[in-house]
Amino acid sequence: MGEETGVLIMSSKKVLYEDKDIVVEVSPRDYELPDLVYEAIKRKGRPVLFQELVKEFSGIVGEDRVRKAVSHLLALKKIVEFPDGTLGTPDMEWKPTGIIRKRRRRRIARLMDIEGPQRVLYTVA
């Protein structure tokens, strides 16, 4: 599996069902999402708008979870917000595009409360 039609494809170990027409996968957990968002930005190779990320992850995770992952990455300084509101890695070159979608206020960088896969959600007695 890979990126065939511009849709984000997750790892094949999370496939629940697959046939020639459809693939059903488990949605990524909160602790996996920042890495997926970071990889999506790097894969584009240019600064991207937040709405582009939301569109890429549509059907996989909601806009609020993408927003939390972006805020987490900003807090870690793994991504930066450019003057026109686009998001990119610190090593990306920003060029003004003429399309300005300036936000009223800048995004707030907040770390997510992330615990890895060893987190116990419930126990069976």
Overall description:
With 125 residues, the chain is an alpha+beta fold. The chain has one domain: Arc Repressor Mutant, subunit A (Orthogonal Bundle). The chain is 26% helix and 9% strand. The strands form two sheets. It has a two-stranded antiparallel ribbon with strand order 1-2. A two-stranded antiparallel sheet has the order 3-4. Strand 1 and strand 2 form a beta hairpin. Helix 1 crosses helix 3. The N terminus is likely disordered.
Average pLDDT metric: 79
Tertiary shape: globular
Specify Rg, calculated over alpha carbons: 16 Å
Q: What's the SSE pattern?
A: EEHHHEE
How many strands appear in the DSSP assignment? 4
Structural class per helix/strand content? alpha+beta
How do the strands line up in the largest sheet? 1-2
Question: If classified by CATH, what would the architecture be?
Answer: Orthogonal Bundle
The parts where pLDDT drops under 50 for at least 5 residues are 1-7
Q: What is the helix content?
A: 25-40%
Task: Give the N-terminus to C-terminus distance in angstroms.
Answer: 39 Å
Percentage of residues in strands: 5-15%
For the structure shown, list the relevant keywords.
125 residues; alpha+beta; Arc Repressor Mutant, subunit A; two-stranded antiparallel sheet; 3 helices; globular
In brief, what are we looking at here?
With 125 residues, this protein is of the alpha+beta class. Helices cover 26% and strands 9% of the residues.
